[in-house]
Specification:
With about 280 residues, the protein is α+β, with helices and mostly antiparallel strands. The chain folds into two domains: about 60 residues, Protein of unknown function (DUF541), domain 1 (Translation Initiation Factor IF3, 2-Layer Sandwich), CATH 3.30.110.170; about 150 residues. It has five helices and ten strands; from the N terminus they run H-E-E-H-E-E-E-E-H-E-H-E-E-H-E. It is elongated. The relative contact order is 0.21.
Length: about 280
């Protein structure tokens, strides 16, 4: 009776072990199937691919103009005086831009610095000293090794970035603004460049056209080889953004001796948005 019970117990344990093993194999098989479904390609066929590329370009006229204005003021007396001079000039420029219709949200302070200027002052040497019967010949006022750094002035500098939206509506507006700003004698007007406000839409359009061209190339190639295209196994996208050329001018020199600065023409031309893609298809 005891032997029968042992044999029964062993049989039941074997059945349980076999059931667990079957369950493990079933789960493993399901996971493998899911993996293949996710990838969509049998690893043994990864070498059977067609590689193609596509490129598309879209040209557009910029509609946003941006430029920077730098104000720099110096005072011999105090830092406070330099700050007041700079603040006065900045406020004059902001008032002018507001009068010309530039919204406050399109004017940004990009930098502000305040620092003292120093100059080196050499102390005069001591009077000649006697060494026995020989004098040490050092002329009074001869620079000594030791010197002092003293403040010779105080400088305050502030930069503004001005953005002109919908520039195409009045292409002369930028030249008028810059000419008007220079009459207020900032230090520089610089970094003039043009951009496209909704460039993301143009980039998406260029990418779609590049993908279409790549697909067409793959279909032609597959037909020539006598095969059929399968699924996409890899995709890469390299976007090329427009190059913005910048111009600058020394505004305080431009406005010297003139109450009005001639309006400068600002040709903007076209900008090219480029999209390049690379796609790998399996072949059947």
């Amino acid at each position: 009776m005891k032997d029968k019970d042992i044999n029964l117990g062993l049989k039941m344990a074997g059945v349980v072990a076999l059931g667990l093993l079957s369950l493990f194999l079933f789960i493993k098989t399901v996971n493998e199937v899911k993996t293949f479904e996710t990838i969509g390609v049998d690893p043994n066929e990864m070498s059977r691919v067609i590689s193609v590329s596509g490129k598309a370009e879209i040209k557009a006229v910029p509609d946003v103009a941006t430029f920077s204005v730098t104000i720099e003021e110096e005072s011999k007396s105090s830092m406070e005086d330099a700050k007041n001079k700079a603040a006065t000039k900045v406020n004059d420029i902001l008032a002018y831009l507001k009068k010309e219709g530039v919204e406050k949200k399109n004017i940004t302070s990009t930098s502000y610095t305040a620092y003292p200027k120093y100059k080196t002052v050499n102390r005069p040497c001591p009077m000649p000293a006697m060494e026995g019967d020989v004098k040490t010949m050092i002329a009074p006022g001869y620079p000594c090794v030791n010197s002092d750094e003293i403040a010779s002035g105080f400088v305050v500098s502030q930069s503004l970035e001005v953005k002109l939206i919908n520039y195409k509506a009045d292409e002369n507006k930028l030249g008028k603004l810059i000419s008007g700003v220079t009459t207020l004698k900032p230090k520089y007007v610089s970094s003039i460049y043009f951009t496209i406000e909704n460039i993301e839409k143009l980039q998406q359009r260029a990418r779609s056209e590049a993908i279409t061209k790549a697909r067409a190339e793959a279909e032609v190639l597959a037909q020539s080889l006598g095969v059929r295209l399968g699924k996409v196994v890899s995709f890469s996208d390299v976007g090329a953004y427009p190059y913005y050329s910048a111009m600058s001018a020394r505004a305080d020199k431009m406005s010297e001796g003139a109450t009005e600065v001639p309006v400068a023409e600002m040709p903007i031309g076209e900008q090219t948005i480029t999209a390049s893609v690379s796609i790998n298809y399996t072949i059947k």
